Automatic annotation (TrEMBL):
Residues 15-398 form the Enolpyruvate transferase domain. Keywords: Cell cycle, Cell division, Cell shape, Cell wall biogenesis/degradation, Cytoplasm, Peptidoglycan synthesis, Pyruvate, Transferase. Its EC number is 2.5.1.7. The modification 2-(S-cysteinyl)pyruvic acid O-phosphothioketal is found at residue 102. The active site is at residue 102. InterPro entries: Enolpyruvate_Tfrase_dom (IPR001986), Enolpyruvate_Tfrase_sf (IPR036968), MurA_subfamily (IPR050068), RNA3'P_cycl/enolpyr_Trfase_a/b (IPR013792), UDP_GlcNAc_COvinyl_MurA (IPR005750). Belongs to the EPSP synthase family. MurA subfamily. This is UDP-N-acetylglucosamine 1-carboxyvinyltransferase. Phosphoenolpyruvate binds at residues 25-26. It is found in: Cytoplasm. Pathway: Cell wall biogenesis; peptidoglycan biosynthesis. Transmembrane segments: none annotated. Cell wall formation. Adds enolpyruvyl to UDP-N-acetylglucosamine.
């Protein structure tokens, strides 16, 4: 299996130059899934060339021709839940597996199931078990109907999935306690440009006019915005290891929560309109973070932040409030020399600064995998990172882009 071999810079500012932030995976995935709302597939640009995008294309292409969703593909990634409601609304029935994806917590799908039920779907319980996988079956032979639905917990893909499904329903839908992530606004803008009528994206209450099964016919293309998580990770990398790093294609308003934290820690960052310049500073100090739904501190930046905190003076507390299994990577950072204590499954205390030393690592999930790359780049000595499929799932040609700014990294 391929892996990354990385020679660390030992804490010196060895990186220099420009790095470009790729298109957002989490924005591109729902937009691609929304192809099923259209008579003819819309045009997409700036999609990242990554595994999850390939999987989504493989998943929805047969459905566009009236065939079933491929279970083997669907169970491989979490976002495979996004087109399910659309298949149900279009064809009156769907079977689908419990979606896979990053192992960062239980990752239930109850908000989807209860959302479709609120729209009149019948879901067979209990779900079948086939070859060790849970297979769900849902039916709505008369089509789905508009509903007034309250999410019991704010869910990003839950909100996106229900918005898209409601576009095809008979009658209007009101969704309450919606997630407010920018990816939802990008999706809704795209659908509205193509004839959908959806109001309130970016707030907790969203109104959708149901089209009674009538597909969209618009021709406005979707352009993926910059990946705000990748952008944030590059800010952290620059603050730890760059003489001067110019990060291009970054939206400052989407990096605001992270910027507040990095500034408080004493990082040297200048934000421009669509770019940022970051330089390593000595004497960064520990700060506390609590992950929150947008516009709070993103859970996807929690692992990169932990690496940052290992280099900060004093103590930093991480409180992960979104997922319950997202701190286990800290054990590996400790094996590299970090001083991180887990208080419970949601909270970690990091004492710094500590010198990190290269070692053999396995990428646990896509964002923690990228965090390991940062740890390896600032460590003394060599690191080998395995299971890089997890990193490639979300970050296009990450090794080449890092090489371009002076990182000593090989894909073997
Ligand atoms: N939740 C439920 N029931 C559900 C769905 C979610 O209880 O049916 C809970 C989750 O367990 C979690 C909380 O709701 O505690 C929020 O999860 P959410 O549904 O918002 O997560 P998601 O939509 O599955 C997206 C991103 C994740 C990102 C989270 C949180 C995509 C494809 N994925 O996941 O991104 O961590 O939002 O911001 O958009 C990544 O890109 O590496 C990644 C994991």
């Amino acid at each position: 299996m391929p892996h990354f071999l990385i020679q660390g810079g030992g804490g010196l500012p060895v990186l220099n130059g420009e790095i470009f932030v790729g298109g957002s995976k989490n924005s591109a995935l729902p937009a691609l899934a929304s192809s099923l709302l259209f008579k003819e597939k819309p045009k997409f640009s700036n999609l990242p060339d990554i595994e999850d995008i390939k999987r989504m294309n493989e998943l929805i292409s047969p459905v566009e021709f009236g065939e079933k969703m491929d279970m083997e593909i669907a169970k491989r990634f979490r976002a495979s839940i996004l087109p399910v409601g659309l298949v149900l609304a279009r064809y009156g029935a769907v079977s689908f597996p419990h979606p896979g994806g990053c192992v960062i917590g239980a990752r239930p799908i109850d908000v989807f199931l209860s959302g479709w039920e609120a729209m009149g779907a019948k879901i067979k319980t209990p779900a079948k078990t086939e070859g060790g996988n849970l297979i769900y079956e849902a039916e709505a032979p008369e089509g789905l109907k508009g509903a007034d639905y309250v999410f019991k917990t704010q869910s990003v893909t839950g909100t996106e999935g229900m918005i898209m499904t409601a576009v095809l329903a008979n009658g209007d839908t009101v969704l309450r306690n919606c997630a407010m992530e920018p990816e939802i606004i990008y999706l809704v803008d795209f659908l509205n440009k193509n004839g959908a009528r959806i109001a309130g994206a970016g707030t907790t209450t969203i109104h959708i006019e149901g089209r009674g099964g009538k597909l969209l016919t618009g021709a406005s293309p979707f352009t993926a915005p910059p990946d705000r998580i990748e952008a944030g990770t590059f800010l952290i990398l620059g603050a730890l290891a760059a003489k001067e790093l110019l990060i291009k294609n970054i939206f400052p308003e989407e990096a605001a929560a992270l910027m507040g934290v990095l500034k408080e820690a004493g990082a040297n960052i200048t934000m421009e309109k669509n770019s940022a310049v970051v330089k390593k500073t000595k004497n960064i100090k520990g700060v506390n973070i609590k992950t929150k739904e947008y516009p709070g501190f993103a859970t996807d930046l929690q692992a990169p932040f932990a690496v940052f905190a290992t280099q900060a003076m004093g103590q930093s507390m991480i409180h992960e409030t979104i997922f319950e299994g997202r701190l286990s990577y800290t054990q590996d950072l400790n094996l590299m020399g970090a001083n991180i204590s887990l208080m419970d499954s949601h909270r970690a205390m990091i004492s710094g600064p500590t010198q990190l030393y290269g070692r053999k690592l396995e990428s646990p999930d896509l964002r923690a995998g990228l965090a390991f790359m940062i740890a390896a780049l600032i460590a003394h000595g060599e690191s080998q990172i395995g299971n890089i499929y997890q990193i490639d799932r979300g970050h296009e040609k990450i090794d080449l882009r890092l090489k371009n700014i002076g990182a000593n990294i090989q894909r073997i």
